[in-house]
Amino acid sequence: MENKPYGSVIGSKVAPYENELAKECGLATDYRAITHPSLPNYLAATGGSTFGVTDDAGPSSHPISGPSLFQQLTQANSSWRAYDESMPTACDLNPSGRYAVKHNPAVYYTAVRTQCAVDDVPLEGHLSQDIATGNLPSFAFVTPNLCDDTHDCSVQTGDTWLATWIPRIVAGPNYRTGNTLIVLTWDEGVGANNLIPTVVIGPSVPTGDRSSAALTHYSLLRTTEELLGLPAIGAASTAMSMSSSFDL
């Protein structure tokens, strides 16, 4: 999700579904984004570095040759998919309408460009089918469009979108096997504080669990790599894991 500080979601009357998730699942109360604007946060969460990027320019301006979670999974013969709402074509390198390429980190990593053409897909049609058939990949990165992620639209709009999709995932065969984790987070907050909401949803997460540990997007990457049996890359190697906080 996009550009909302912790207090604009958690405790907000216009986000009833998100607050119900925070009540029933796990909530990180001190999770902070890395920087501003959007793109370097997406790179941090998937590559363990901002790679010196300080703007939201497209892949032609920022071809990232460094390592990424997508490359790790490809090399390990593990499956991954990015589902991008309103993206016109697979692995689209240019913004279009409500599709923001800056919110689709997989397209920036040149080492996985071939795999990107196959597994970075429009959300429409693909996510519903993969949920229903139990064919979700080992790792999925789900990106709403510029309205549903609350970048251009209200917190309430994003809450409604999440109330549609997360129950579908939870009701699907992959989640029902007991080994699927959903992490709902935002790219950045506001100002230097950069405190953002992060909710952790999984069968092993204690009801109402709260973690006050100092966590970041690097923590999310480290946790993802741990759960997938991959070595930590970049700043993830020294970040605090989320595993112990949420019984993962």
Would you mind describing this structure in some detail?
With 248 residues, the chain is α/β, with parallel strands linked by helices. It has a single domain (6-238), classed as Alkaline Phosphatase, subunit A (3-Layer(aba) Sandwich), CATH 3.40.720.10. The chain has helices at 16-24, 38-47, 69-75, 113-119, 123-133, 155-171, 173-176, 217-228; strands spanning 26-28, 31-32, 80-84, 120-122, 139-143, 182-185, 198-201, 209-211, 215-216. It has a 4-stranded mixed sheet, covered by helices on one side. α2 runs parallel beside α8 (217-228). The longest helix has 17 residues, at 155-171. 44% of the residues are buried.
What fraction of the residues are assigned to beta strands by DSSP?
5-15%
Q: Which value, in Å, is the CA radius of gyration?
A: 16 Å
In the CATH scheme, the class would be: Alpha Beta
Oligomer: single chain
Nearest-integer average pLDDT: 98
- SS content category: alpha/beta
Tally of extended strands? 9
User: How many discrete domains?
Assistant: 1
Number of helices: 8
What composes the largest sheet? 4 strands, mixed
Strand sequence of the main sheet, in spatial order? 6-7-1-8
User: What's the N-to-C terminus distance?
Assistant: 22 Å
User: Uncertain regions: pLDDT < 50 for 5+ in a row?
Assistant: none
By CATH, the architecture is named 3-Layer(aba) Sandwich
Element order, helices and strands?
HEEHHEHEHEHHEEEEH
Helix content: 25-40%
Q: Which fold name fills CATH's third level, the topology?
A: Alkaline Phosphatase, subunit A
